[in-house]
Amino acid sequence: MNKQTILLAAMLATGFITSHASAAGQSAQDAAARYDSDKKLCADEREASLRMQCLRDAKATYTKAMESAKPASQANGHAVCATCGKVTSVHVTEQAGQGGALGVVAGGVAGALLGHQVGGGTGRDLATVAGAAGGAYAGNQVEKKMTAKKVWTVAVQYENGRQARFTFDKDPGMVAGDKVKNAGHSIVRY
Question: What number of other Cβ atoms are within 10 A of residue 83's Cβ?
Answer without folding.
Answer: 13
